[in-house]
Amino acid sequence: MSDFDVQSIRNDFPILKRKVYDGKRLVFLDSAASAQKPRAVIDAVSHYYETTHSNIHRGAHALATEATDAYEAARKKVARFIGASLPEEIVFVRGTTEGINLVAQTYGRAGIEEGDEILITEMEHHANIVPWQMLCEEVGAKLRVVPVNDKGEFVWDEFERLLGPRTKLVAVTHVSNTLGTINPVRDIVEAAHRQDVPVLIDGAQAVPHMRVDVSVLDCDFYTFSGHKLFGPTGIGVLYGKEHLLRAMPPYQGGGAMIRSVSFDKTTFEDPPFKFEAGTPDISGAIGLGAAIDYVEKIGLQNIGEYENELVKYGQEKLRAIDGLRLIGTADEHASILSFVVEGIHADDIGRLIDREGVAVRVGHHCTQPLMKRFGVPATVRASLAFYNTKGEVDALVAAVRKAIHVMTRTCPIEHAEVRPSTESIDDTQDRIVREFSAITDWEERYQKIIDLGRRHPHIPEEYKQDKYIVRGCQSTVWLHAKLENDGRVTFTAESNAMIVNGLITLLLRVYSGRTIGEIIDTQPRFITEIGLSTHLSQARANGLAAMLEQIKNYAVVLKTLAAANRA
Ligand SMILES: Cc1ncc(COP(=O)(O)O)c(C=O)c1O
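Above are the sequence and the pyridoxal-5'-phosphate SMILES. Below is the predicted complex in C-alpha cell form.
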C-alpha cells in the first residue's frame, strides 16, 4: 500500500475542504449514505454539458452521435468493471432501489406465483425487502427471512434450512449498510444454484469498497448505485445474465424501449434498451464512467486494504469508550462503524457530534427489522471511505466522548422547572426568550436545552402507548392531553431523546395548563425568537412542528367534544 497517499486523494475531493458551523473542519463519515465526488467526476459531468449534450440513440447529428457514444462507452466501462460478459447485460437505472424494483416487477411478476417463496436476510435494506413484499402480496408468494447472529452474521444453517423446493429467488445484500457484514455471496449463489434458484445481489455497499466480479460470483442479478461509488446521483446499474434479461418482460413502457409501435401491437427492443424507457440519465452514466476510472486508478485492492486498517482502528478506539456497544462485529467486515451508547439515544449523540463538525448518520438506516433484532431503536453509523483518515476517526471518537460527557454530567438543578401558575402564555414566551437571549453562543444554548431535557420528568408508563406517539418525529415522542375540571388542558409528554425532552419542556411550559382557546390561538413565537427555527436540523424542526401540531389537534378535539357535551 506504499503508493496509497490519502492526503493527495483528499485533494481530489473539493468538498472535503469545507468548514461547517463557524469554521469547524468537516469530518465526513457518511459515505454509505452517499459518497463525495472527486474533481474528475465533477469535471466529466460539466464537460459533457459544456461540449456534448444532446439526446441519445435517435438523433442524426454530430452531438447526438457523440453523446450516444459517450453513454454507450460508459455502459462498456461498467460491464468491464464488474466482469459482465457483455455490455448488453448492463441496464442503467436510477440506483439500487430501482434495480431491485425492476427485477421484482418484471422477472418476479412473470415467474413467481402463489405459494412460491422469496428468500432474503434479516440484514436487508428496505430496498431489498419492500419490493419483494409488494410482489408477494400481489401474487400470493411468501417472504422467508434468514436470521443474523449476535455478531450480525448470516446464519448459514438457517439459510440451508429455508432454501427449499418452493424458493424461487434469493435476494441478499453483499455488504450490510448497517452492520458492515460482508456476506458469503459466492457460497450463497453456489448453494442456491444447486437447487436451480437464481440469486440477486444488492451490491450498493460492496462496489465502493472491493473488487466485484459477477462472472466469479456467478450471480444472476447484481445491482448498485452510482452515487455511493463516488459518481453522480440519479444513476445506477442493474446487471442481469443475458438469457434472463432477454426472457424478462419490459419494465416501463415509452420511447427508446420499442422496436415498433402500432395501435394493434408494440414490439420491444432487445436488452438493455428494453428496460430503459425514455431519456436516460446521460450525464449520470458519463459521470459514473469517470468515477470508475478514478477508483480503478487508485486500485480497489489498495482501497480495500486501506479501509480495512481504518475500520479496525475505529473499532478498537470506539470499544475503549465506556458504555459503547458496537452493533455489527462480523469477522468479515467492511467500512461501517455502527454503535449505541447505553442510556443515551443515538439521536442525541448524532446531534452533538454534528456540532463538532463530524457528519454521521443516525437512525434505523432503512433496516428497521435489523434494529428490532438488536433491540435498539436506532444506531449511530460512521461509514468510512478511502478519503478518510485515522485523524478523522480520532475526531469521531473525541466527539463521541464529549457528547457522552455532556449528556451524563451531573445536572446542577434536580427538578423540572415549573412555571408560576399565574403567568400568562405571552409572559411565559417572553421569559423563555429572555432566558435564551442571555446566552449568545449556540453551543451553550444546546447545552441548556439538553439540561432542560435531563430534568424533564418521566411520564407514567401507561402513557407510553402507540396511540400517544406523535407521528413525524425522528425519535419516539409520547404526548398525552387531559382536560381538567377548570377547563384547562394538562399536557404530559416524553421522548427517548434528551434534546427532544428539552424542546418538550419548553413547549409544555407554554401550552400546558392553558385554556383550549389559548392553546389554539397562540403561535409559538419563542421558537423563532430564540433561533430554534434556524439552528435545529430539518429532522428536529419537523419533529417540533409535529409535536406542536399534535398539541393543537388535541385542543381542537377537546373543543369539539366540549361543544358536543354542551349541546
Ligand atoms: C445495502 C443498500 N441497498 C440499497 C440501498 C438503496 O440505494 P439507493 O437509495 O441508491 O437506491 C442502499 C442505500 O443506502 C443500501 O445501503
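The mean pLDDT is 93.
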